[in-house]
Amino acid sequence: MTTSTSAYLAHFRVWRGDEDGGGLEDFKVEVNEGEVVLDIVHRLQATQAPDLAVRWNCKAGKCGSCSAEINGRPRLMCMTRMSVFGRDETITITPLRAFPVVRDLVTDVSFNYAKAREVPSFVPPQGLGPGDYRMQQEDVGRSQEFRKCIECFLCQDTCHVVRDHEENKGAFAGPRFLMRVAELDMHPLDAAAEAGIDRKRTAQDDHGLGYCNITKCCTEVCPEGIKITDNALIPLKERAVDRKYDPLVWLGNKILRRKP
Ligand code: SF4
Ligand code: SF4
Ligand code: FES
């Protein structure tokens, strides 16, 4: 290994353990210019802790698998430059807190896959072939923002609704999947309503939209810079409320309820 002249030793505290428990272990690890936290974790594996479990794939901020908490903040390890920390600072790396630990820095994120499966997928309009779809650029742009999601689940991890309240997990899909519902509800070609799926109602009743109190913590940690709260959750809340207080919907519900 070549050591550059600007290399220094940094103090790391890394959580080691499994579902039965664990704790923080201290390490001194070499840091070189231009490195990111994932480089240091790899060096730690190579030199001092060969059995340290860590999940990663791309090292380019695109696969969403190296999510962890660095000094308590949910971040991608591959996109967190060492230069953002002082040389004397102790850097603490812990697994995502909202999900069960598998081992060391690896958590079981299957909660998110279960929630993804609960969102009905895009319903293509009847009688239109894929090549015949036409959308306004404004509508395309709106979907494109949400489609930048790399499924790192940092927003899911940071949301206080589930972070400290395991009991809410059944009723709350989390920002990533409420954003998915919003995307589909705003999609001009989605024919879910014709197929009997009321996305606004499911957002409230099945995915727990009412639990979100628009604190924007999810937006703050999103590595793709998606404005989850402003562009997805707040508009979805507005649409769901509009529907609830729409006099025609109210009248329709009354008439339907009167039927024997
Ligand atoms: S804005 Fe809503 S979804 Fe996002 S972190 Fe806050 S409560 Fe959770
Ligand atoms: S919305 Fe952002 S923070 Fe949430 S999973 Fe997608 S990329 Fe990650
Ligand atoms: S390793 Fe792929 S996002 Fe970090």
TrEMBL record:
Highest taxon of the lineage: Bacteria
Q: What is this protein called?
A: Succinate dehydrogenase/fumarate reductase iron-sulfur subunit
- Pfam families assigned to the protein according to its UniProt record, in alphabetical order: Fer2_3, Fer4_8
Pathway field: Carbohydrate metabolism; tricarboxylic acid cycle
User: Which species is this UniProt entry from?
Assistant: Streptomyces pathocidini
Q: Which residues form the 2Fe-2S ferredoxin-type domain?
A: 10-97
Transmembrane segment boundaries: none
Q: Which family does it belong to?
A: Belongs to the succinate dehydrogenase/fumarate reductase iron-sulfur protein family.
Its needed co-factors are: [2Fe-2S] cluster; [4Fe-4S] cluster; [3Fe-4S] cluster
Stored InterPro entries: 2Fe-2S_ferredoxin-like_sf, 2Fe-2S_ferredoxin-type, 2Fe2S_fd_BS, 4Fe4S_Fe-S-bd, Beta-grasp_dom_sf, Helical_ferredxn, SDH/FRD_Iron-Sulfur, Succ_DH/fum_Rdtase_Fe-S
Q: Which UniProt keywords apply?
A: 2Fe-2S, 4Fe-4S, Iron, Iron-sulfur, Metal-binding, Oxidoreductase
Q: Does the keyword Metal-binding apply?
A: yes
